[in-house]
Amino acid sequence: MLVNDKPLLSIVTHSPATTIGVTLVTLHLLNAIFAPLLIPYGSTQLAGMPLIAPGHPDFLLGTDVIGRDFLSRLMMGGRTSITVAMIGVMGAVIIGTFFAVSAAHFGGYYDDVVMRIVDTKLSIPGILFVALFVVGFGRSVTVLTIVVGLSYFPGAVRTIRAQALTQVPLAYVKAARLRGESALSVIIRELTPNVIEVVVVEFAIRTSSAILIVSALSFLGLGISPPTADWGLMVSEGVNQIYEAPWLILLPAVFISTLVVGLNFASDGIANALGLDAARGLGGH
Amino acid sequence: MFRAMIRRTLLSVLILFLVAVFVFLATEVLPGDALDVYLSEDDVSVMTLEDIEEMRQELGLNVPAPERFFTWLSGAVVGDFGVTIVDKIPIGDIVFNPLLNSLQLGAIITLITLPVAFAIGATAGYYRGRRADAWVSTTTIIGYSIPDFVIGTVLIIIFAVWIPLFPAVITAYNDAHPLELIAVSLLPAITVIIGHVAHLSRLLRVGFIETMNSDFVERARLSGVPERNIVLRHVLPASVIPTLNAMALYMAGVLSGLIVVEKVFGYPGLGIELIEAVDTREVHVVQAIAFLGAVLVVVMNLLADFAIIALDPRVRSHVSER
After folding, report:
1. Is B284 exposed, middle or buried (0-12, 13-18, 19+ CB in 10 A)?
2. Contacts with B279 from chain A: Cβ below 8 Å
3. CA angle (A134 as vertex; A128, A137 as ends), nearest 5
4. Averaged in consecutive runs of 10 residues, what is the pLDDT profile of chain B (322 residues)?
5. Per DSSP, which regions of B148-209 are E strands?
6. What interface predicted TM-score (ipTM) does this complex get?
7. Which DSSP helix (H) or strand (E) runs through A3?
8. Which domains does chain B have, with CATH numbers?
9. Which residue of B has its CA nearest to A17?
10. Which residues in chain A are closer than 8 Å to B16, comparing Cβ atoms?
């Protein structure tokens, strides 16, 4: 299979880090998808005695403070945050593309209004932005998904608009206008396909950052609520047993870290292999 | 030059106004009635319609939203955010000390982050494509991929539980002496610094490479200026300019990071105050903290713009078109 005239295999093995990243992401995705079929106990089921240490024959990674099987919780612990992050960022990028491309196309006051809204959001630090919504609308997965979408919308608009601005003056856009295509058609059929590469990179980079945010919010008690198994939540629940059972913190910490490190290794390596240098140095929060 | 500065200032005021509108809308207008936020279902079931109406009067909710907004805003610009719902304590008093504590921790973090990020970014940029660059690139990805709360909690496990050098939880109060807080700031600061150094050094690397490729560096080389002078005196200062705005926006990231580490370590700052306010549904405290956070970011951004206008002759001429 070829991507941008390069064999897929050479892209995913671009560097040792890329290979590690792609492997980690694949393992995490397989686990997230098939976990419900593989887990020995229900992730919220009280399965045994509390605080059994790892290595027990029935509970491979032990049990938590109220006796839930820790392996089952770990395996299920990424599903909610991954889903929330992906749906939220996808919504942000799709709607953001429309606003970004149309702002670049029309320019003028419309562009100004869109960009001032973007500046406004970018001025409110991420977690404060979420806190406003949580206090107003309460805590739920739906609210969280919408808030993640709103959080990543302005950044998406900014990046994609910058790319669209390089396209607007080009001849094919002018030609389409002269052919009598409507503004909507120019935006959707002519401009959008030519910014799609940036859109995809934006999605890839922001998803890993959104997973970080969602797990941080769960840790703070602003995100996913108990008894759902979630790595961020598990770390904060483990803090009370930090002396007698530090693995309750360390194991979910390893899971969340390997996922995000994997995603960023993979997206950085793939962007490099495809020569999308613009993507470098823009990851993170 | 001054026209450009005035323009940026006016724009910042506009942004802050929009932030205020947003902060107000998100918490008071959109979710129906603000009373829904204060009262649980249990409360409502034991209250009569008159009680509710009376409470609405008391909270000033019978006043139309635009009017309430301007009352709130005119207070907010002078630091008066009203009183808490339950205890009627002035919010300004509640957030003042935590704000100072957070600013202090933020300043410590920034003072360490910037030089370290510079050194790493410039080194990686200078040795672009070589082994040092690849190594930096890999470690920085790991640095910003691991969540703050994970780094913080793991540091506690290592340096408080396994090797008991530090207390696991900071027990300082809101009004603790600044020096007392500096003493306990080490682990929280390191936690935030790791991610931010990782991220900023990548930005600075890009800025450094761009500057190294510019004509004036070529000229300096050709006219025999020593390589060390080129890098330290010319490239380094020039490579800062394109990254200034990103750095200012980055302060927003520092604020978010602060909220997380304050919770991890129990540092008495705005973050702890915020989480508590969300738990107790003290809407006005959340509003105040969100607004203060945005003021900080906007001011930093404005300062970055001023610095760019003052430092970069190319921008001076066409900044007014931005």
Report:
1. buried
2. 221
3. 140
4. 83 88 75 56 67 69 74 78 76 84 88 89 86 87 90 90 79 72 84 89 84 81 80 78 74 81 88 86 84 87 82 57 40
5. none
6. 0.86
7. strand A2-3
8. 2-77 (no CATH), 91-321 (1.10.3720.10)
9. B138
10. 123
